[in-house]
Write a structure and sequence with these properties.
10 strands, 3-stranded antiparallel β-sheet, globular, 5-stranded antiparallel β-sheet, alpha+beta
Length: 161
């Protein structure tokens, strides 16, 4: 499966995007986390977890030197658009660049979670929303080699039709 919504967020993707975009509550954001290939559970198991801490209890976060979580705040998002011609909603996300990522963990899954308060929250408070496969040109996990890794979403975070 290339991408999926976590069960806890099914049908709520637009609501959560709108909350971050409107800064309601203040300090809300989307948080991006990379999962390492070696300990990754199947999509069928991952999608059942209700918090980021539950995801990370079984599928470990990447630990490569240079890696850090990324985030999107209200300043990074634009109002979502409703396309009545194609019967869909597109939630645009800006690209994120991981700079100078050292060898170590292979990167396999990118999780986007909703944090209602980035100043006081913990992983137990982050609701996992979407997960995307991270595949290199050979169709396997990404192998960091000291260079940059850029994540893009040309079709948006969630397209509902």
């Amino acid at each position: 499966m290339a991408a999926f919504s976590f069960n806890v967020a099914l049908g709520r993707e637009v609501e959560l995007y709108n909350r971050v975009n409107n800064n309601d509550p203040a300090n809300s954001a989307f948080i991006g986390v990379v999962l390492a290939d070696a300990t990754l559970e199947s999509d069928a198991l991952l999608k059942d977890y209700d918090t980021l801490s539950a995801v990370l209890a079984t599928s470990l976060e990447a630990t490569n030197a240079g890696y850090a979580r990324v985030s999107w705040t209200d300043a990074d998002l634009a109002a979502y658009t409703v396309d009545d011609s194609l019967d869909k909603i597109v939630l645009a996300l800006s690209s994120k660049t991981f700079t100078t990522i050292s060898p170590g963990d292979l990167w396999r899954k990118f999780v986007i979670g909703y944090d209602s308060d980035t100043t006081a929250g913990t992983d137990a408070n982050i609701v996992p929303v979407k997960a995307y496969d991270m595949l290199g040109s050979t169709g396997t996990a990404i192998v960091p080699n000291g260079g940059d890794i850029i994540c893009t979403w040309p079709d948006g975070m969630h397209v509902s039709s």
